[in-house]
């Protein structure tokens, strides 16, 4: 069956399954095993503050590369009809880098960081084209629900594979493996296969959105012209600019919590096994919570639901700076699971409502640019403050400023006005 003839609901599900594909990398590699394995296997011979520093720098460098490339590649994707080919390209790069981590030997933390960083670049840039496909796979009335479906399935899929990977590391003999270190290395290989497998439905069943296609150098020239035109459009879309400013601030804090939580807790002396359990709790709680968030967004609007989630995040950050017992980390994991997917899903849906659909690739490129510009600062700030003061708790308090300022700007976003202006600029 041709992609263009696939029914709407099947397109929605096929699109959402890509969240299952790449969430395995985000959960098993980025959030869970890589920070622990870096400290205990690849960088075991250097101080923990130095490994925290290099992890933060690598996170920031990957975000910087994505920052530079996102709007340019987004404009080329719109002009040439290349959203799916570019998504496939970066998915394959991510798969290759996850598999490459399997081969990195003990003590070789520079090579491990390079593979990890390139995998993050692939993860980030793939999201530009994945998000840009959202307006074309569903009807406007279902944007919140379908966006939440993606994140909800991502939590489910990432959680299932993470549970298997966690069992592999806790009981390697069950899987015919000699030790936990070998199990972690094999976990990276399973992530590569998982990403490749669950990317297939989108590539087969989601059509490339209609566009005025150009080929070869003509597409590059058209992309550059469109990039210039979109910059001018942004100056007229004040609601979009206001939302992007808010998103830039609060998503920095959200991403920093996700990227640095395990490293932060390890620095406070929490055990690795307990932290992995907490991450699994976050995944399991996130599945129903994110789907519920999608319904709440449909009923009450995305903006109020996001603001509520940011308030919860602020309370969790304060709690995190005071925690001393393992059960507290589990409580924070539950709290993050309740709001993280919802905030991300409804932010994507709200943005899709207030931008011109025929320029979704480029506009989502700008959204990705701002989020990665923020991510350049967030993880680096946590790493630098931790190294300079020797007190990781202090670095987390800076996130309250980002959450508060982002919420204040988001409160001023007029969604209806944004939808009206986007319709006027539709090509």
UniProtKB/TrEMBL annotation:
InterPro entries: Atg22-like, ATG22/LtaA_families, MFS_dom, MFS_trans_sf. Pfam families: ATG22. PROSITE patterns: MFS. The chain crosses the membrane at residues 12-33, 53-74, 86-105, 111-134, 146-166, 186-206, 234-251, 271-293, 305-323, 329-351, 363-382, 394-411. It is found in: Endomembrane system. Keywords: Membrane, Transmembrane, Transmembrane helix, Transport. Its main location: membrane. Residues 12-416 form the Major facilitator superfamily (MFS) profile domain. It is a multi-pass membrane protein. PANTHER family: AUTOPHAGY-RELATED PROTEIN 22 (PTHR23519). This is UMF1 family MFS transporter. It comes from Candidatus Methylocalor cossyra.
């Amino acid at each position: 069956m041709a992609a263009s003839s696939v029914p709407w609901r099947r397109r929605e599900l096929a699109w959402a399954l890509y969240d299952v594909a790449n969430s395995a990398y985000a959960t098993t590699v980025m959030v869970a095993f890589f920070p622990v394995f870096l400290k205990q296997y690849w960088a075991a011979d250097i101080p923990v503050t130095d490994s925290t520093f290099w992890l933060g720098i690598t996170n920031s460098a990957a975000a910087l590369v994505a920052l530079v490339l996102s709007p340019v590649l987004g404009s080329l994707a719109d002009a040439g009809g290349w959203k799916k080919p570019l998504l496939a390209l970066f998915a394959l790069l991510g798969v290759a880098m996850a598999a490459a981590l399997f081969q990195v030997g003990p003590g070789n933390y520079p090579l491990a960081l390079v593979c990890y960083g390139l995998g993050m670049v692939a993860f980030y840039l793939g999201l530009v084209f994945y998000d840009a496909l959202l307006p074309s796979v569903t009807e406007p009335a279902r944007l919140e629900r379908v966006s939440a479906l993606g994140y909800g399935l991502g939590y489910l899929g990432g959680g299932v594979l993470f549970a298997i990977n966690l069992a592999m590391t806790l009981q390697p003999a069950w899987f015919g493996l000699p030790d936990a270190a070998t199990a972690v290395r094999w976990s990276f290989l399973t992530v590569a296969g998982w990403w490749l497998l669950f990317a297939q439905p989108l590539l087969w069943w989601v059509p490339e959105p209609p566009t005025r296609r150009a080929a070869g150098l003509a597409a590059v020239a058209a992309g550059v012209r469109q990039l210039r035109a979109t910059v001018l459009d942004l100056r007229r879309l004040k609601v979009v600019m206001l939302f992007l400013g808010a998103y830039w601030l609060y998503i920095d804090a959200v991403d920093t919590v996700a990227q640095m939580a395990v490293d932060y807790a390890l620095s406070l002396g929490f055990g690795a096994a307990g932290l992995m359990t907490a991450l699994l709790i976050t995944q399991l709680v996130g599945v129903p919570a994110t789907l519920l968030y999608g319904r709440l967004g449909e009923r009450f609007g995305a903006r109020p639901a996001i603001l509520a989630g940011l308030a919860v995040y602020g309370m969790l950050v304060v709690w995190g700076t005071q925690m001393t017992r393992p059960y507290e980390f589990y409580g924070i994991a539950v709290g993050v699971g309740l709001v993280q997917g919802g905030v991300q899903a409804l932010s994507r849906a709200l943005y899709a409502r207030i931008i011109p659909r025929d320029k979704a690739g480029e506009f989502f490129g700008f959204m990705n640019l701002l989020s990665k510009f923020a991510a350049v600062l967030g993880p680096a700030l946590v790493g630098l403050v931790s190294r300079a003061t020797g007190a990781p708790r202090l670095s987390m308090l800076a996130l309250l400023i980002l959450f508060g300022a982002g919420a204040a700007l988001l409160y001023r976003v007029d969604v209806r006005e944004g939808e009206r202006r986007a319709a006027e600029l539709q090509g």
